[in-house]
Specification:
It is a single chain. This protein is of the alpha+beta class and 397 residues long. It folds into 3 domains: 114 residues, Acyl-CoA dehydrogenase/oxidase, N-terminal domain (Butyryl-Coa Dehydrogenase, subunit A, domain 1), CATH 1.10.540; 112 residues, Butyryl-CoA Dehydrogenase, subunit A, domain 2 (Beta Barrel); 147 residues, Butyryl-CoA Dehydrogenase, subunit A, domain 3 (Up-down Bundle). 49% of the residues lie in helices and 14% in strands. The strands form 3 sheets. Strands 1-4-5-8 form a 4-stranded mixed beta sheet, with helices on one face. Strands 2-3-7-6 form a 4-stranded antiparallel beta sheet, with no helix packed on it. Strands 9-10 form a two-stranded antiparallel ribbon. A hairpin with a 2-residue loop joins β9 and β10. The structure holds flavin-adenine dinucleotide.
Length: 397
Amino acid sequence: MKVKVPLEEFDGLQRDLVERSRRIAQDEIAPHAAHWDREKEFPERSFQILTREGFTALTVPREYGGAGLGVFEGCLVIEEIAAACLSSAMTIQMQVNGPPRVIARLGSEAQKRHYLGRIVEGKARFAIAMTEPQAGSDGTALETTLSPDGDGFRLTGTKCHITGAAYANAFLVFCRAPQTAGPDGIGAVLIDADVEGLAPIETEDKMGGRGVPEGVLRFDNAPVRADQVILEPRAGSRDGAAFLVRQFNPERCGNAAMSVGIARAALEHAIEYMKQREQFGRPVIEFQGIQWRIADMATRLDAARLLLWRAAKSDVEGFPGIRETAMAKLFANETAVAICNEAIELLGHKGYLTRYPLERYFRDARGLGIGGGTTHILRNMIGGEVTGIRVSQRRKS
Ligand SMILES: Cc1cc2nc3c(=O)[nH]c(=O)nc-3n(C[C@H](O)[C@H](O)[C@H](O)COP(=O)(O)OP(=O)(O)OC[C@H]3O[C@@H](n4cnc5c(N)ncnc54)[C@H](O)[C@@H]3O)c2cc1C
């Protein structure tokens, strides 16, 4: 069946990565995926296996003990893992495409040694905290404030919908300088989960990716040392806001890779089923109408993967291009939902039963088009990039 990544296109290292992650995904992860979803259990076993294989340290620079690979290689691995289990892929998405990239790019030497070294050892688990109750698509409406306090700072504010919050031991938290608003005065700090002033984390029950729930972080005057600031929020500076937009691009590529993985798994499952299922005295797969639907699904899947590879390869210093990334994520997110939906129909009632994986794939795919920027926001970005006319979304007062 030709829906997987074609190995002949790759060099030795990339080929090894795909073969190794595919084997681990099939043999060690896929058999447990339904359990983690049903029981809403964090796939700790997957995280340990993926750490053992060095996948959590894939994009950590070599001088800090990682493999020093790029967004492209990260996406190859994440597609394979997500095709077996989205929750397992989510355990490494933040390590491969999240805060470690920001640390590698902006961190002090001490921050790099401390955090990147712990990622390589499988000891640091990151979550990224941007969204707030009043600041979703409008990330620059964030209110969490970093106030000077003696030699250090204090952090106060609430973050919500933070993936893996309850399982992370370190957070990259976006915040702002006192008395600033909008894109002015945004920055970021690195906070350990045992910091004083962080309330017990509430988790949010959700539809898909249920092994790794989102959570709410409430900081009340949490102490922050000066050496934990990675991007100091400064009144009168918009650098932090500009960086906030760019730093999401690796994560968006990883999100698109997860969408491609789920779409591929759904298509493979549907094809296998239709080869076995007979109606009118012949396998369903032989009907012309069914072959055309498979053709459309496979074409969309390849297009999504190719857009993703283009985005991942547009990586400059670890941050892929805005236009390429937004197109890849948008198309991959919508493709995953469309292919899962179509596959459910192709299985008939068995596509609708919880004992088969398609309904899980469908639920898993749905959240990917919201997290990391909704499909509407991605369209806004693409429209602005393509036309050169970037329309302010803010109401004029
Ligand atoms: C699975 C998942 C994981 C997530 N993980 C994290 C995480 O780890 N860290 C984190 O910080 N956040 C995370 N989020 C939060 C995510 O970033 C936000 O949900 C997302 O940015 C949208 O914000 P919102 O939910 O508040 O929707 P809103 O911003 O309230 O949007 C509501 C609707 O209005 C539309 N809309 C808003 N503005 C515009 C506009 N200008 N033009 C057109 N349409 C618009 C939106 O597209 C949406 O349909 C996650 C979300 C999900 C679903």
